């Protein structure tokens, strides 16, 4: 098979591992810089152009689209879909998962456990909003933030009001969530491929930090997850429409709660913590599922 990997850099660990895994299985893998792709969208024969050539003959595309280029990356991926190339994750599913508010609403509708979460527009409602999620301490999140950036823990009512009003003053959209103290600064990253959790790791925040992201100095270790956590992770990925997803779960007093569903999960931390060949599992999934024109949406939304 001929596989395209949409990624800004071929040297990134996840991209490199996917190329290695594809080549080990006898496939041709090519890394394509998403932002160097350009398209003629109003044509009877859809094409993606790249550095002066027309990209064609691909059987599958693996999108490794960073949050900062979601809009353009989804447009490029949608063009591949319209051309009949099989996407590991579809453009509409990636866009859905990147919108934190939309994704929480969809997960909630399907009965998946979530932290109590509030969303408001007017500063006049801040006091009631904080009460609604159980009072201080609360976690305040920018809707567009990634890797723990734009996430603040406000330990008192006054601090929460100040932070929320400051964000609102900047016209930023924010979520306010209950702080799950019993998680102890740890979460579980479940890596879902297809309808299985293929690897899981515990991420522990460093001393004095509540965000467990590895980019923020958190540590990763192997963990055994419960059948409930396994089922929650698979269902959350399915609700988002993602074939490959990193589902972040917290252990709370009221069961497993999903913090986020990531459409381009990093492979380095989880492969090193678990010893699993996650890149190889993703390529195996493509081998079983890649067929022309198999995209559910075919660029419809």
What does this structure look like?
The protein is an alpha+beta fold and 301 residues long. It folds into three domains: 88 residues, 3-Layer(aba) Sandwich (Rossmann fold), CATH 3.40.50.20; 100 residues, ATP-grasp fold, B domain (D-amino Acid Aminotransferase, Chain A, domain 1, 2-Layer Sandwich); 63 residues, Dna Ligase, domain 1 (2-Layer Sandwich). It has nine helices and 16 strands. It starts with a strand and ends in a 12-residue tail after the last helix. The relative contact order is 0.16.
Defining key terms:
Dna Ligase, domain 1, alpha+beta, 301 residues, 4-stranded parallel sheet, 9 helices, Rossmann fold
Profile the largest sheet: 5 strands, antiparallel
The secondary-structure class comes to alpha+beta
Number of structurally distinct domains: 3
Low-confidence stretches are none
Please work out how many helical segments DSSP would assign: 9
Summed up:
With 301 residues, the protein is α+β, with helices and mostly antiparallel strands.
Indicate the topology.
Elements: E1 2-6, H1 13-24, E2 28-32, E3 37-40, E4 47-50, E5 53-55, E6 60-63, H2 70-82, E7 86-87, H3 91-98, H4 100-109, E8 117-118, H5 126-132, E9 138-142, E10 151-154, H6 157-169, E11 174-178, E12 186-193, E13 196-204, E14 219-222, H7 227-240, E15 244-252, E16 255-262, H8 268-274, H9 278-289
């Amino acid at each position: 098979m001929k596989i395209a990997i949409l990624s800004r850099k071929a040297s990134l660990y996840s991209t490199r591992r996917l190329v290695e895994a594809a080549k080990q299985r006898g496939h041709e893998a090519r890394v394509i810089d998403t932002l160097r792709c350009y398209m003629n969208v109003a044509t009877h024969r859809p094409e993606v152009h790249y550095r002066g050539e027309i990209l064609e003959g691909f059987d599958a595309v693996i999108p490794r689209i960073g949050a900062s280029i979601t809009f353009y990356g989804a447009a490029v991926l949608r063009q591949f879909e319209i051309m009949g190339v099989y996407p590991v994750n579809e453009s509409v599913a990636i866009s859905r998962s990147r919108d934190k508010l939309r994704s929480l609403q969809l997960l909630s509708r399907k009965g998946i456990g979530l932290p109590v979460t509030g969303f408001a527009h007017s500063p006049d409602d801040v006091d009631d909003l904080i009460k609604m999620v159980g009072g201080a301490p609360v976690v305040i999140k920018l809707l567009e933030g990634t890797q723990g950036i734009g996430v603040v823990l406000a330990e008192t009512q006054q601090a929460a009001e100040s932070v929320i009003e400051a964000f609102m003053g900047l016209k930023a959209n924010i979520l306010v969530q209950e702080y799950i103290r019993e998680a102890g600064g740890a979460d579980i990253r479940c890596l879902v491929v297809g309808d299985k959790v293929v690897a899981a790791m515990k991420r522990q925040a460093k001393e004095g930090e509540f965000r467990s992201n590895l980019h923020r100095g958190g540590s990763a270790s192997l963990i055994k997850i419960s059948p409930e956590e396994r089922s929650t992770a698979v269902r959350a990925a399915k609700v988002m429409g993602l074939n490959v997803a990193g589902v972040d779960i917290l252990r709370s007093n009221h069961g497993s709660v999903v913090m986020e569903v990531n459409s381009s999960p990093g492979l380095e931390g989880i492969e090193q913590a678990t010893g699993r060949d996650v890149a190889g599992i993703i390529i195996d999934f493509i081998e079983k599922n890649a067929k022309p024109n198999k995209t559910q949406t075919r660029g419809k939304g």
